[in-house]
Amino acid sequence: MPDYREFKLPDVGEGLIEAEIVTWKVKRGDEVKVNDIVVEIETAKSLVELPTPYAGVVSDLLVAEGATIAVGTPFFVVDVDPDGAPSPSSPSASSPPEARPSASAASLAEVGMPTGDEPIEPGLIGGPAPGGRTSVLVGYGPRESTGKRRARTTDSAAVQAAAESAVDAAQAAVQVAVTPAAAPVEQPPIDELPDALPLTEAGSTAHVTVLAKPPVRKLAKDLGVDLATLRPTGDGGVITRSDVEAAAAGGGGDATAAVAPAPTWSRAPGERETRIPVKGVRKMTAQAMVSSAFSAPHVTEFLTVDVTRTMKLVERLKQHREFADVRLSALLVLARAMIIAINRTPEINSTWDEAAQEIVEKHYVNLGIAAATPRGLVVPNIKDADRMTLRELAEALGELVATARAGKTQPAEMQQGTITITNVGVFGIDTGTPIINPGESAIVAFGAIREQPWVVRGKVRARTVTTLAVSFDHRVVDGAGGSRFLADVGAILSDPALALALS
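^ that's the sequence the OP posted. Answer follows.
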């Protein structure tokens, strides 16, 4: 008989209450294996891909793309025993879970889950793995099939209890290693949620299967290329490595283009107003900005700098063989200048601990780059940027930009930042008064780079100029410290050779 398993929305980060179904990666009738990615969801932090804890045939997709559901809501059904008997029509989403066949120990064993009456061996899903990790986590890796199991008992009550326990464990184990959101969003009452949401065209989705080998998929992920947007050139419609590399090379831009265009809101003819639900990343951003603006006393200072020498340095570096395959821009020099200036003003890289009434000085620099995406503002950061060479820093900036453009920035990449750059210059804006990223004490706004008249040794000449702004938390940084930091950054951008003297 068919053996249906419901996959309930897991908590992919402590405190998660709800998530939006963004894209289904499978459709009804597809065959899936344990750890196969089946859906992409949007949480209050970012997009997350969920793997299935069950192997079998997709029986039903209970929720449509674009719908927001609460944690614990069933949204995906798999028949783990499709060959057991001719399968009737997929179970109704409104039918209670009890009406469907319960999990059997045999089918649990098929997908590598413990049945409760056998020893758990190292390397198997459900047992300890090398390094002290537990391999029950979906997405951890392929399970080994060499382990031997004891014969199962025939006690139906014991089997049923073990099966239910294993299913609960599997649901709880579908976790992504993320940091919890800063503040939970309000959870809708579970009884107000519909039993099922309609799908397009008799239960199907608009998902198009993308054919690509695992190494090509990994390359696309590393380069920030969306496979669904590519035109395959391989036999049978398979996307090749050259397809991905061509797309990545054609993306253009550099690290100064970390800001994506804002989404275009649709408007029906005759409408005078449009209401847009605030959820996901935008809701989290709003909460964080309000909290920062009204808890940290902001002070903003400005400095206009002649960056002619910085721009000449960037052009020289582009010709150097060490940087031949790396995208370079003035943002790289600014990042290095800030790291050097932090060594002279360490309080700028600190944070205020309200609970302990302490200032926590960080002895590392996790450099954040604010990026506007169609889903809202995200601030991923480069971990330990102060320990990187100039080339390593350039590569890290490139990877961060590519990931942000693709909308694939993960929650862990946005945690534990210590100081941030917001590049408003890509919009042609001279400067602004940026709001400090929560948990940090300073943010630098990098303005547009323009040619304009400038006095050099008593004569007016055309020079390349930009304006910097720094906002800092006056509880942590005094006016003298903030001014010294900004002056040091400006001095290095004006004459990059000073980096040798100040570092």
